Amino acid sequence: MLLSLTLLTAGCKNEAEPTPEPDMSLEGSWRYIESEFTEYSPTGSVVSQSGRHSVLFAEFYTFSGSTLETKYSGHFTYIRSGKTLFFTPLDKNNGSPFGSTITELTATKLTLQKRV
Fold this sequence. Notes:
Strand content: over 45%
CATH class: Mainly Beta
Radius of gyration: 21 Å
Number of domains: 1
């Protein structure tokens, strides 16, 4: 009797645990419409903020598989780990690898934060 109660409890416990939500996909084209710059001190305090600025030339970021294509910024491969993206330029003359953090991702909005 005790053995069957233990198995029943264990079985119920596993079913009651919430399953993690899958990360939303980045696949598709995203229009780059504004930017904002924040300067931080070495201790992490905000020194200055630019406020949001509209981008003069519309640029689309197109994520497909493990690549990001842009008209003005170049083409990149990327790896996603949760909310962190690691970008590597396909053209080695187009900068160094860098990371960004997804701060918001919905069906209609993607916000990335990049610390430099």
